[in-house]
Amino acid sequence: MSTPFIIGVAGGSGSGKTTVTNKVLETIGSEMAAVIIQDYYYRDQSHLTFEQRLGTNYDHPQAFDWPLLISHIDDLRNGRAIEMPVYDFANHTRSDQTVTVQPAPVIVIEGLFPLYDAALREMMSLKIFVDTDSDVRFIRRLKRDIAERGRTMESVIEQYLSTVRPMHNQFIEPTKRFADVILPHGANDPAVDIITTKVASLMV
């Protein structure tokens, strides 16, 4: 493939986006894909105090470093490796570490808002929205944030009610209209199989 096949995998927090991404990797081989995690592209907040960082609305589009994300996707599709940032969710700012991502025939962009930005959408060959019931998404987010991000149950619930749910309804859910494929009931096997079969056919 002379031009990378770029896939956007969007959906609410805990919807099953990572499951879809992993299925694609299992089908074509991880060495054939470059995976960009949009959560790593939250804006650097090292210039703010820790207390100020706690007030960041991570479920709003403005929380992301869009110029850096778009430039990195452009680099990858033009055959240039990138240094993907790593976000420190315990300290609410960008880490000093980066992850080297090499160009590949398939580029997967996974996150809340891959379908939000028009410039990013125009780069995509396939736009996917993973649609999952809100109660399932909340339970998954609660478990993840406690286990992986050092959060308390009370803080996760408060954040969900104050920002996650309203931001999902205002900003994430509407991007579903830009999707080429909507996966109902989350990453259900029949729908994911169709997608992975399509992507695998491009590798032949």
UniProtKB/TrEMBL annotation:
How far does the signal peptide extend, from start to end residue? none
Give the UniProt keywords, A-Z: ATP-binding, Cytoplasm, Kinase, Nucleotide-binding, Transferase
Q: Which Pfam families match?
A: PRK
* Pathway noted in the entry: Pyrimidine metabolism; UMP biosynthesis via salvage pathway; UMP from uridine: step 1/1; Pyrimidine metabolism; CTP biosynthesis via salvage pathway; CTP from cytidine: step 1/3
Give the Enzyme Commission number.
2.7.1.48
Locate the transmembrane regions by residue number.
none
Q: Name one GO cellular component term.
A: cytoplasm
* Reaction(s) catalysed (UniProt annotation): uridine + ATP = UMP + ADP + H(+); cytidine + ATP = CMP + ADP + H(+)
Q: Which GO terms describe its biological process?
A: CTP salvage; UMP salvage
What SUPFAM superfamilies would the database entry show? P-loop containing nucleoside triphosphate hydrolases
Residues that bind ATP, according to the entry?
11-18
One MF annotation (Gene Ontology) recorded for this entry? ATP binding
According to its UniProt record, where is this protein located? Cytoplasm
Domain Phosphoribulokinase/uridine kinase as annotated: residue spans: 6-186
Similarity remark: Belongs to the uridine kinase family.
Q: Which PANTHER family match?
A: URIDINE KINASE
**Protein's name according to its UniProt entry:** Uridine kinase
Source organism: Chromobacterium violaceum
